[in-house]
UniProtKB/TrEMBL annotation, chains A, B:
InterPro entries: DGOK (IPR007729), DGOK_C (IPR042257), DGOK_N (IPR042258). Keywords: Kinase, Plasmid, Transferase. It comes from the Bacteria. One of its GO terms (molecular function) is 2-dehydro-3-deoxygalactonokinase activity. This is 2-dehydro-3-deoxygalactonokinase. GO terms for biological process: D-galactonate catabolic process.
Amino acid sequence: MSGAFCAAVDWGTSSFRLWLLDASGAPLAERRSDQGMSGLTGGGFGTVLESHLAALSAPADLPVVVCGMAGARQGWIEAPYVDTPAALDRVADHCVRPEHAAREVRILPGVAQRDPAAPDVMRGEETQLLGAFAGQDGAGLACMPGTHSKWVRLSGTRIDGFSTVMTGEMFAALGHHTILSHSLAEPEGEAAAAAFAAAVRRALARPEALVSEFFRIRAGGLLGFAAPGTGGGTLSGLLIGAEIAAARALAGLPEEVTLIASGAIAERYGTALALAGCTTRRIDADGAARAGLFAAATRLWPTRNRRD
Amino acid sequence: MSGAFCAAVDWGTSSFRLWLLDASGAPLAERRSDQGMSGLTGGGFGTVLESHLAALSAPADLPVVVCGMAGARQGWIEAPYVDTPAALDRVADHCVRPEHAAREVRILPGVAQRDPAAPDVMRGEETQLLGAFAGQDGAGLACMPGTHSKWVRLSGTRIDGFSTVMTGEMFAALGHHTILSHSLAEPEGEAAAAAFAAAVRRALARPEALVSEFFRIRAGGLLGFAAPGTGGGTLSGLLIGAEIAAARALAGLPEEVTLIASGAIAERYGTALALAGCTTRRIDADGAARAGLFAAATRLWPTRNRRD
C-alpha cells in the first residue's frame, strides 16, 4: 500500500479497528476485528497489530497511532491519563511508545477527572472529540452513547468535565441476567418504538422512581398490559431516559446537544433527546475517531507528509 | 412425626423450605433445600415434596399448604392471582389443588395489581404479610427486601397497593456482569460499612442522577479515591438508597416502616431507612412466612385440630 501517511488504530475493550490514512487523512484501507484488549496479553498486542498491517501490505516503516483501551493499565502499555481541564489538541503530546514494537507506535492517553466526588475516566472518546471538533468551537455538551456513554462539557476544544453512564452495559446485564430476560427473549414487535418513547418520557418525568419501573416490564407482560415484543424497547427507553435525566441533573441540558454516534444508536438518542427538548447536531462516531487519530498523527509527525 | 397439624411450604424460585407445624403453629421439624421452582418441571414438584415429608416421617394423610412460586404459571400448578385491594386473611379461599398429588396439597395464590400504569405481582410475600400482621393492624408501609423487594401499602390487613424493586437481582447483575465486577472482586474492607452509608446518602439526596453514580465505583478505584474493598458496599448503598427514594417518590415515607427481613439484609435496610428519616419495626421474614402459612392452614382446615 503506497501513499500511506500513517496507520490509525482505535483499540477498545472488545474491538479493533485500523485504517491506513493518506496525507489528507482520507482512508486508503480498513481492518476490523473483535481482537479487543480484554482478550490479549502484553505481548499479543504487537502481534495482532502487525498481522493486520501485513494483511494490508503496509510499509515496514509506516508509523502507527493508537487510541483506546490499548493504553490502559491492563492493555499494551499504560499511557497515564491527562487530567481535566484537558486541551484536546494537546493530548497527543502525552503519548507513550511500547518497547519492542516492530515499528514506531504511539499510544494516546485517556483523560481523567480527578474529582473525589465525581471521579471519571475516558480512553478513546477524547480522540473522537478531537476529530469531531477539529478546527471548530466545540463549546457545549457532547453526548457519546455506548457501552459506557460519556457526557462531555467543552469550552472551545477543552474538556472541562465529563460523566460516564454505563447504559449499554446496564442494558445487557439487566436484559440478560435478571428476570427481564424472559421479556426480552421475544422478537421485537411493531410497538417497540412506541414503547421506547413512552419509557423515555416516564424516565424523564420521574427519574427518582426509576428503579421501580424495571419489574413492571415483567409484570406488565404477565398481566397482559404490555404489547408483545416491547420489553427491549421499554428497557432501552428507561435507561436512555434516565441517562439524559442524570445529565440534566448534573449540569443542565442546553438547547442543542452534539451527538457523536453511529447507526441505530444515533437514532435512539436523537429521539430521546428530542423528547427532553433538545435539538441534536449529529457527528458520525466512526468518522470522528478516524479524524481524531489523523489530527494526533499530524501533531506527532508534522514533517512526515513532506518527507514522503 | 406425631402431633403434626400440617406441613407448611414456602416454595420460591430458587429455594424450598418446609416445616411440620403443631396445632399451635409451633415448628416440630424443618427442611431446607435449593430445589426451587426454576429447576423443576410439573411432575417434579410432587416427588420433591414427598421426599422431604418422608425424611421427616410425616403421616401419609398430613395436609400441606404451599405459598410462593410453586403457584406460578411455570410452577406446579397455576394459582391465579387475587387482585388488589386484597384482604390478607381471605387469600387462602382462592387456593388450588394439584391433581395427582399423593395427599391433600393446597397452593396459595399470589396477589396482582392490575394497574396499567403500575402493573405488579407478588407470590409468597402476601403469606409473609398475613403472618406478620395476624390479628394486628398492619396499616402503613411494609418493606420486604430481597431479590425482588416489595413495598406494600396496607390498610388494616388489606393490601391496597405495592411496588417491586429488583434490588437484589440488580446488585447481582451489575456486580457480576459489568465492569464493576473488578471493583467487587476485592474482599470487603473495613471501610465498606461507611461506604454503604455514604452511598445511601448520595442516592437519597439525588436519585435523579443515580445512573451517573455506578461508573464512579470503577473510576474512583482506578484514580485512588476509593478505599480498598468498598465497591460492594457502595453498589449496595446506591441501590438500596435508590429503592427507598423510589418508594418515597411513589407514596411518601411514613415515620415508621415495617421491615420484614432477616439477618444482614435487615441490618442494611434498617440503617438505610434511618438515613431516610424512618424508624423501623422489624419482623423476622422466616417467622412471618411460617406464621402466614399456619394462618392459611387454620382457615383451610378449621376442624382438623379437633379431629386429631
